[in-house]
Amino acid sequence: MLSWALMFFIIALIAAGLGFGGLAGAAAGIAKILFFVFLVLFVVSLLSGVVRRPVA
């Protein structure tokens, strides 16, 4: 998931450098959404691990 966000971020940088403003904005928006989805899934995964940890 994070690799997709990074890929769209790189596409946005290349498109912005070449002057394709609309494409750069769309790719940056997709990268931002994927990054936040990854971040939420990561936090849920951490919380799930803390809850399931057996107490010694």
Blueprint (SSEs and pairs):
Elements: H1 2-18, H2 21-52
Helix pairs in contact: 1-2
Polypeptide structure, described:
With 56 residues, this protein is mainly alpha-helical. It has one domain (2-52). Helix content is 88%, strand content 0%. Helix 1 runs antiparallel to helix 2. The longest helix has 32 residues, at 21-52. The model has no long low-confidence stretch (mean pLDDT 83).
Keywords:
2 helices, membrane, DUF1328, cell membrane, transmembrane helix, rod-shaped, transmembrane, single chain, mainly alpha, 56 residues
Distance between the termini: 34 Å
Q: What number of domains?
A: 1
Helix content: over 70%
The largest pleated sheet is described as:
none
Oligomer: single chain
Shape: rod-shaped
Secondary-structure element order, N to C: HH
Keywords: Cell membrane, Membrane, Transmembrane, Transmembrane helix
Transmembrane segments: 6-26, 33-51
Pfam families: DUF1328
InterPro entries: DUF1328 (IPR009760)
Quick summary of this structure?
This protein is mainly α and 56 residues long.
